[in-house]
Amino acid sequence: MRFRAVFTLLFLCLVAVTVVGQEYGPVDDFDAVWQAVSESYADPDFDSDSWETLRDDYRSRVRNTEDEERAYELLSEMLGHLDNDELFVIAPTVVPQLLQAAPGQPEQEYAGVGVMIAEREDGSVVATGTFRDAPAEEAGVLPGDVIVAVDGEPLPAEGATDAAVERIRGPVDSEVTLTLRDPDGEMRDVTITRGRIDLRPSVEAQMERPGIGYIRIPTLSIELVQEASRALPSLMSARGMVLDLRAVSGGMPEAMVILATWFLGSAEVGSIVTREERHPLPQRPDSIAAFRQPLVILTDGRTSGVGEVLAEVLREHRRATILGATTAGGSQIGQFLELPTGGLFHLIIGQYETPRGRLLGSDGIVPDEEIEPPDLAAIRAGEDPYLDRAEEIIRQGGRL
Questions:
Q1: Is the CB of residue 195 less than 8 Å from the CB of residue 135?
Q2: Cα–Cα distance, 76 to 55 (Å, whole number)
Q3: CA dist., res. 35 & res. 337, Å (int)
Q4: Are the C-beta atoms of residues 367 and 374 closer than 8 Å to each other?
Q5: Which of 4, 287, 301, 332 is deepest in the core (most CB within 10 A)?
Q6: CATH code, domain with 161
Q7: Per-residue confidence (pLDDT) for residue 155, from 0 to 100
Q8: What does the DSSP 8-state code read for residue 370?
Q9: Cα gap 177→156, rounded to integer Å
Q10: 224: how many CB neighbours lie within 10 A of its CB?
Q11: pLDDT tens for residues 273-294?
């Protein structure tokens, strides 16, 4: 579901408005959503008069329908007039499923082979990648390999992904044999010894190529930024740095500010703007830029949130060149409100404003140079055109 990842990250921000001991229905949820949007929705283009014209018609339709599912469809339809995908309602019947799917603590490790899989439109299960140094990588499983069978037993036509996961997992040090079909149709069997796969995000910081530093922080948390800080001295001799923000979305503004100071020193990093106020992000007035050589940032269509905020801050200060694809546009500040029935409403209560006063909305940021994503053959060969072009730019002095 589209909102599941957001729900996992923001559930602790949930604000309860339920009153115990009273029966509530979709009309009560309608009124709560209406009031929340009218009072707190943060969007400079919000037209309160147009919003007002929708109220009576949709409230009447919600009140008159006896189909609860249809009532929430109408509520979603009304929110659609605001043209913001981050505004959505979760019906009370769906919430228990999400609570079950989003436990308080994510799983940290499991006994398996360390292969990432996805189900294709035809129902087949394909390897999309492997964890670094995991058994699957060492055994030669490559992106694009279709998993045909596990231990000689073909995957079923329906529920193939669940079956693959269940069969591939097993006791540590036990063996599992995957029958794989490569993109050319060639079949092969790969026997892999299962191991514990650590799913906790970790920092990558190394000299990727001679004279080129490389840093990837998958989540901009305080802990991971501090981990990267300890690795930074080993990269100080680099003639240029690549900051890989591809697929980086989650994190904290405070961690983003710390990371920005590595390359900027003391500088404005923007503000959070709500309906009524502007809240400048904290500056670090005594900071000195630790790295002053050319910097190239990599983005893709999954870069969002504080990841895209960081990229734009560094570009506005003329400190970095952005390379890759337009970002996802997820830098708005959201909050879940608990509705009277127990349903949830995700409301945008703030937007990020850059140091130059530009609001980052849902359109994402456009890189300085677009790079076509690598095709399957390039991925299987271990090629990365993003890094290749970043190296060229750094050797040219860091500018296009």
A1: yes
A2: 13
A3: 12
A4: no
A5: 332
A6: 2.30.42.10
A7: 95
A8: E
A9: 17
A10: 19
A11: 998 889 898 877 778 899 999 9
CA angle 349, 353, 358 (to 5 degrees): 125
Q: Are 164 and 136 in contact (CB under 8 A)?
A: no
The domain tally of the chain equals 3
Q: Residue 100: is its pLDDT beyond 60? A: no
Separation between Cα atoms, residue 373 and residue 379, nearest integer Å: 10
263 contact partners, CB below 8 Å, separation of at least 6? 289, 290, 291, 292, 295, 314, 319, 320
**Structure tokens that stand for 250 in this block:** 């989650």
What is the percentage of the chain residues whose pLDDT exceeds 90?
62
Question: Are residue 278 and residue 382 in the same domain, yes or no?
Answer: yes
Helices 306-316 and 253-264, axial angle in degrees (round to 10): 30
Q: Are residues 234 and 270 in the same domain?
A: yes
- Give the confidence band of 97 by pLDDT, cuts at 50, 70, 90: low
Q: Which domain holds residue 144?
A: 109-198
Residue 345 included in any domain: no
For 387, the token pair is: 């890094």
User: For the whole prediction, is pTM greater than 0.85?
Assistant: no
